[in-house]
Structures are given as C-alpha cells and as structure tokens.
C-alpha cells in the first residue's frame, strides 16, 4: 500500500509493504501516481517502510497477469508521473532498491541515499530487464559506460559507488532532511527550476523558455518588494 502524510511544505509518500520488501502491485502503482500528482506541496519525499526502499515489481503477482505488458505500461506511467509532477520529488533510499525500485528513483528529481542503501537491476539474471523507463533514464543519470555495466551485470552497488557513478547525488544519514531543506526555497522558483532542467526540447527553445520563466519570477519578486515597501 501507499501511505501519504502532509507535513508542512513536504508531502511524505511511503511505500508500505515491508513484509514484501515494498514490492509493487498494479494497485500500488496507481496509488503512487495519485500520491505525487494530487498535492499542492512544493516538495514530495518518497521513501520505503522497513529495511528496503523498494524491491520493484511484485513478480509473484506479475507472473499471473494476463498481459504483463499492461503492468509495464502502468510502471512507465507512474515513473513519468514522478518525473513530470508539479512537486519536486526527493527520493530517500534506505536499504535495498532493486529493479523497478531503482527505476522509480531514477524518475525522481533528487536521489539521496543513506550509507545502508544498495542498488541493483537483477532482472538480467532471470531473463528480464527494467521496463519502467529505466533504459531511457539510466544513461541520463549515469555515464553510458557505468549505466551499461550496472544494467548488464546485475551487480549490487553500495551507496559510495552509487554516489561515484552519479546514481545518487548525496549520501547522508537522514535523507528527509534534504527534502526539508529544499522545501525552504520559494515554491515558484522550485517549480520553474525543475521544469527548466527537465526540459528535453532543443537548446534554443529551452533557452527562450528559461528567459521567459526568469522574467516572470523577477516580476513577481519586484511586486513582492513593492508591496512590502507600501506596508
């Protein structure tokens, strides 16, 4: 199941199936999409309950589906919802992230690990691979050589190697503190920064959009200063 809690400027979203290492079923993917899109919080903190972040797809369930491709598409939609959400998504990884769990983390805006975090794409060992957008996002986050080594070998990366390869941006004892720190920023600025950095259009179009967004923020800032002086 997916639990949500709104805590000041941060929505906390917890994958809560610790007995199954937080493996995801179709209904969990649907609930996760809703959790990250149906919020006005400027920052969302995504984490797992218990000793794992997320083991990916619940293969005991997937193996009995009539059309596993539909489940793959549901996972892709959920990862896209995380990437495209209005809220900034900070993923806190404590313990194991495997398969689809790695792919959900890849979709987040920021991946923050604890020293206990580990990462792997083990599907190759039994004839599967990450199909929730992982083959698209992984080489954007890591260098292509590191991405291929990680995906083809199925080997486990510890937190330090994940940091070295760019899979995570920080290793800290308390990832939630990073979400709180980001949430202290001005919400409109957070939104614009995410949109601009996530923009995949060609450079000239991105730069025009960047200039327009900056001008809008400056006007808002100037209006706020003027209003403050009138008080």
TrEMBL record:
Q: Which PANTHER family match?
A: ENOYL-COA HYDRATASE (PTHR43802), IP11341P-RELATED (PTHR43802:SF1)
Q: Which family does it belong to?
A: Belongs to the enoyl-CoA hydratase/isomerase family.
Q: What is this protein called?
A: Enoyl-CoA hydratase/isomerase
* UniProt source species: Halorubrum lacusprofundi (strain ATCC 49239 / DSM 5036 / JCM 8891 / ACAM 34)
